[in-house]
Amino acid sequence: MTMTRLLRLLTTAAALLLFALPAQAQAADVDIITPHITDAHEIEIPWPTWPTMHKVVHLPRVTTFMLPGTRIEVDMSPTKHVVWMLIAALTICGLLIFAANATNRQTRTVGHAKGFAGGIEAMVLYIRNEVIIPNVGHHGNGFVPFLLTLFFFILFCNLWGIFPWGSTATGNIAVTATLALMTFFVVEVAGIRAQGIGYLGTIFYWNKDLNIVLRVMLFLILSPIELLGKFTKPFALTIRLFANMTAGHIVVLALIGMIFSFKSIASGAPFLMAVAINMLELFVAFLQAFIFTLLSSVFIGQIREAHH
Questions:
Q1: Distance CA 267, CA 168 (A)
Q2: What global pTM score does this model have?
Q3: Each residue's pLDDT tens digit, 238-271
Q4: Residue 215, SS3?
Q5: Cα–Cα distance for residue pair 205/218, rounded to 1 Å
Q6: What is the number of structural domains in the chain?
Q7: Domain that holds residue 78
Q8: Is residue 2 part of a domain?
């Protein structure tokens, strides 16, 4: 066996192990990345059968129904992304409950949390004290549970998407849109509770310092812009998270595809680049969860303090 063939064999084997390559005998049929970002009614699980190394499990199908008075069909069947969101939620519950119990135990014995529990405590305190409270403003503790839930849920959805056989639920625009919509309602309700009738000022521009003519003109011009601005914020949250989590996987797909295109010693370069991009994806998983939480905190703080 020549050195070139040996290198080609090692590179292909590494790609199979790192990226959960489906069993396809020919390069034209290889699909190693899109299962991480596309939704389906099947889910792959690790299974020791060569050459697939995974088993496809078909998720149960639920009878669809039509919305009354419409032609819209609603399918309530669980999908791959639903399963991975449940896995992310269960992972969060398990880790945080374990960390909380460990923190209580260590605080009683040594006076402070340490190890894994100390790391979780430091992360929670940083998000609360440096991100949420400064941006939400005074009496912002009531928003801490919601925003921390957002942070950890998005983080673990992102991380499970990097895991072999995993799937990035946040690479589904329906998921990111739902998270943004929830944040939108929290922002608007926070504004109503903080300002009362003054909340209308965040929709209708009425500057009492101007004369009546300019006041009416600006009311007609800026009020639609103010209203539109309320919907651009959740739209920005939706697209930012969806695009960033999808883009990294697409880049990895392009690089791994080059391995099968070169079919030579040169295939080692895109493989190393793909590994580097995956390491960057690990950083992006934390970054995007942080940014989503930061922007949500900023939007809540803005509307609570909004005035014209």
A1: 27
A2: 0.81
A3: 999 999 888 887 887 777 777 777 766 556 777 7
A4: helix
A5: 7
A6: 1
A7: 33-60+74-304
A8: no
